[in-house]
Amino acid sequence: MLKNKGKELLFVQWLLLSFVLLSCINHAHAGVTSAFVRHEWPSVDIPLDNEAFAVPKGYNAPQQVHITQGDYDGKAIIISWVTTDKPGSNQVRYGMSDGKYDFTAEGTVQNYTFYNYKSGYIHQCLIGGLEYDTKYYYEIGDVNSARKFWFQTPPKIDPDVPYKFGIIGDLGQTFNSLSTIQHYMETGAQTVLFVGDLSYADRYEYHDVGVRWDSWGRFIEQSAAYQPWIWSAGNHEIEYMPHMGEIIPFRNYLHRYPTPYLSTKSSSPLWYAVRRASAHIIVLSSYSPFVKYTPQWRWLAKELKRVDRDKTPWLIVLMHVPMYNSNDAHFMEGESMRVVFESWFCHYKVDIVFAGHVHAYERSYRVSNIHYNISSGSPFPAPDKSAPIYITVGDGGNQEGLAQRFKDPQPDYSAFREASYGHSTLEIKNRTHAIYHWNRNDDGKRVPTDSFVLHNQYWGQSRRRRKLKKNHLHSVVKNLPRSERL
Ligand SMILES: *[C@@H]1O[C@H](CO)[C@@H](O)[C@H](O)[C@H]1NC(C)=O
Ligand SMILES: *[C@@H]1O[C@H](CO)[C@@H](O)[C@H](O)[C@H]1NC(C)=O
Ligand SMILES: *[C@@H]1O[C@H](CO)[C@@H](O)[C@H](O)[C@H]1NC(C)=O
Ligand SMILES: [Fe+2]
């Protein structure tokens, strides 16, 4: 009796395994390398006197206004702005109706130097205790040059609440960057997930570095003063410039772009997490230590345990350097982080990993390369239903231009790639479905180019299948090793 049961089990195991293998093969269809070649468009920075960088009118008027989430769950916001003539007021006046401010909050002010550049007065004000899903109006600055803005708080954390994110990377401050921002603003997305390389001010020297951080702050204000940009840092934020006596990494960036890292018990503003609507967003730093036992590694191990897919079904990771990239530019630079974190991403069923760095667009299939261990296992990426989709959107439009040379032939892990400027949107519908778009800036027009319906990795198809299997083959599945369960 027992013996027969064993045979039966083996047979069912074999059946299940064949099914796994077959469905893997189905997924391994060839990727697309888009033949689209955009027209010439100079990748030069917009001149400083252009209206894209206009200084607001009025003595000591606030400029470079931007906001970001201020806590773990979206009930707080950090408002930042710069005044140039004198420190002025640190106060934010805010409320739920335009021009009538029932509340005030007091921020901080700081200034710093970078080589011989002296920054303006950088104000930062954390406002907590906000209502969810509410439009707030706010006013900053001294009375005679005050400026008014507004923002909408996210809905309360809820597994089925819809929310639309935009994803922008490697933006810079060229005419292409302007096109990206303007197209992004047409999408109606509510929050930007920024995947690093902000201003490209480090392409300048001496006094001009600080000047170009300031112009970038004025440039993004059209969006960033009205909705949060969730920041992650790239290599252009490092600004290690010993010839100018500047040797502390990330100085300009850290002075200007605060993050709510303390609310997730992170020890650095460079890696942290926020929960917003139905998404848990984890921000990593490609240019900070991440190997075993480092603070970032320890923090991520804990943060992944805190993820509760019953509350926030969507698990999104942001980093600068892509782990799966088939462009000549920055090829294999993400390997070191892949070796350290990829198995966690599969284990925790991350939905999407967004990265930048490569100035092109690329999307992967669900693949992983976690079985190779130097002495054994296949050294090639293989289809893996537990794996995230890796998306590179380093195509915001900075002055370095596009990364036009892709590896040929296109590797199996690469689903779609094109060297054009653009941005992405992720429109979460409910706990199971989200709609993803990559929008190419086709010389002035916004052209949706790569899109798909994303099924949630925890609540989506595989979970339904798991449930089905559980009902029909409960005893069998129980006996399979975890990695072979569907
Ligand atoms: C900050 O501003 C004050 C007042 O204008 C000035 O005295 C000080 O030198 C500045 N500090 C730095 C680090 O630039
Ligand atoms: C490498 O992987 C193989 C196959 O999974 C395993 O048998 C072996 O013990 C692993 N080696 C090390 C050093 O972990
Ligand atoms: C989730 O959204 C998708 C796409 O809009 C829809 O087809 C599906 O029925 C929704 N599911 C639930 C449970 O509402
Ligand atoms: Fe980069």
From TrEMBL:
Its keywords, alphabetically, are:
Glycoprotein, Hydrolase, Iron, Metal-binding, Signal, Zinc
| Name of a matching Pfam family | Pur_ac_phosph_N
- Ranges for domain Calcineurin-like phosphoesterase come to 164-361
State the InterPro entries in the record.
Calcineurin-like_PHP (IPR004843), Metallo-depent_PP-like (IPR029052), MPP_PAP (IPR041792), PAPs-like (IPR039331), PAPs_C (IPR025733), PAPs_N (IPR015914), Purple_acid_Pase-like_N (IPR008963)
Residues of the signal peptide: 1-30
Kindly list the cofactors needed: Mn(2+); Fe cation; Zn(2+); Cu(2+)
> Where is each Purple acid phosphatase C-terminal domain found?
387-445
The record lists the catalysed reaction(s) as:
a phosphate monoester + H2O = an alcohol + phosphate
GO MF annotations for this entry? acid phosphatase activity; metal ion binding
Q: Which PROSITE patterns match?
A: PROKAR_LIPOPROTEIN
Tell me where in this chain the Purple acid phosphatase N-terminal domain is found.
62-153
Q: What class of enzyme is it?
A: hydrolase
Entry's EC annotation:
3.1.3.2
Oligomeric state and interaction partners are given as:
Homodimer; disulfide-linked.
Q: Which family does it belong to?
A: Belongs to the metallophosphoesterase superfamily. Purple acid phosphatase family.
Q: What is this protein called?
A: Purple acid phosphatase
Per the UniProt record, the source organism is Olea europaea subsp. europaea
